[in-house]
Amino acid sequence: MTTPRPAAVIVLAAGEGTRMKSATPKVLHSIGGRTLLGHALAAARGVDPLHLAVVVRHGRDLVAAHIAEVDPDAVIAEQDDVKGTGRATECALYALPADLAGTVLVTCGDVPLLTAETLRGLLQAHAASGSAATVITATLPDPFGYGRIIRAADGSVAGIVEQKDATEAQREITEVNSGLYAFDVAVLRAALAEVGTDNVQGEKYLTDVLGIAGEKGLRVSAHLIRDLWQTEGVNDRVQLSRLGAELNRRIVEGWMRAGVTVIDPATTWIDADVRLGRDVIIHQQTQIHGVSIVGDDVVLGPDTTLTDVSIGDGAAVIRTHGSLSVIGAGALVGPFSYLRPGTELGAKGKIGTFVETKNAQIGVGSKVPHLTYVGDATIGEHSNIGASSVFVNYDGVSKTHTTIGSHCRTGSDNMFVAPVTVGDGAYTGAGTVVRRSVPPGALAINVAPQRNLLGWVHQKRAGTASAKAAMAATSALAASEQSPSVADDPANVTEGNATA
Ligand code: UD1
Ligand code: CA
Hints:
CATH topology of the largest domain: Spore Coat Polysaccharide Biosynthesis Protein SpsA, Chain A
Distance between the termini: 90 Å
Shape: elongated
Radius of gyration: 34 Å
Structural class: alpha/beta
Strand content: 25-35%
Bound molecules: uridine-diphosphate-N-acetylglucosamine, calcium ion
CATH architecture of the largest domain: Alpha-Beta Complex
Helix content: 10-25%
CATH superfamily of the largest domain: Spore Coat Polysaccharide Biosynthesis Protein SpsA, Chain A
CATH class of the largest domain: Alpha Beta
């Protein structure tokens, strides 16, 4: 059955959420890399409504700014001083076109596991039964706090009564209101005009619309669903983490069914907007956040956290922390690498152990294998950066850029004092402090000649374990036949000069 397109979805998000005990409005708390409201908007968009309205009040500016960012086409409706879900819905209708006709869905901004598929099921059931209103319901072992569904003899819904307004007998009912509805908009509009605030909470209840429609002889139905997670709202941080864990369990399971190997689902966290290729293998303790996009045959983890990172086919990223970076196909990252924003590693490149990169473009086949900081740099193709080097990008006031060409071989323990350029095919010696640009094909060296001040330890550190060890070794060398004279090496300077 094709799903009828709704005229609008109204997302209620004006409530305060006091139990979160937070400076942040409840609907802006996140699970799975999206805010609660972000999840609600994604589900709403999934049924392709002509209009989408969000009702705001508490934390209005923050919530409105977030909506403008994640769903700029959504209409922001302000709730006034009148309290209640009915008033919130009415305020949304004021903000939508006056000639709106057909079906309107009402959902909550704090029910993050609800899917578009479930809303499609609601729309289909609503259309098939020809109802004026249909409410998603669930049967809970402990229905405390929820509105209870009062069924008529024919199985239709006679009304909904809130926990606080319910009689003892009504509180025994275990079928509850999820807070998710489909309405004929004309019926909704007319009924809301009749809803008062004569109840224990003094609020204008949306739930009263169902009773009013029923009294007018219109059909009101319940659409019972079994997946209770989809109706559960977040009220406090315990529920936030519970629903976050369940959302993650669903996402991880979905990827396994789509062809991803997850070695340890319990310690693997994948955000809702992550995309993974085929035959990706994820080892334990790996978190993939944000809008990360992973190609086919990639190995991730163990112990890896990536946020907004793109990874090409066949790459491996092991024990790495990275964000806002691009890793080329077949590249190798880790173990123990730190990729900061703006890192771009070319295909078959390498960022190795204890290497930190930031705003660094590292070309195809180039390697930064060990103990190095690459900040504000461009490295060409097939170059190798020696172990323990630093791209010295900060002079204490400003940051400047270093460029290394292609097919370069830089020595271990180099300092590239930016701004500096190393030409294609150039080499640098171990320990070089590169302060001046190196022409293509040149070897840059600037180390001072080494001097060995003979006997220095004996003189200056007399009596230490080092002095004793040196004495023993010197005697042994002198006694042995094969001792080449230390005087043969011009680096060696005699004892009397050991003043350094
Ligand atoms: C509501 C239902 C209840 C149902 C429960 C499901 C009513 C009267 N009751 O109860 O039958 O079982 O949801 O979770 O509708 N909101 C506004 N403006 C308001 C009040 C609420 O926008 O003035 C929004 C909230 O932000 C939230 C949603 O409406 O997204 C539900 O509000 P909440 O206070 O949680 O509803 P309950 O009183 O628990
Ligand atoms: Ca309430």
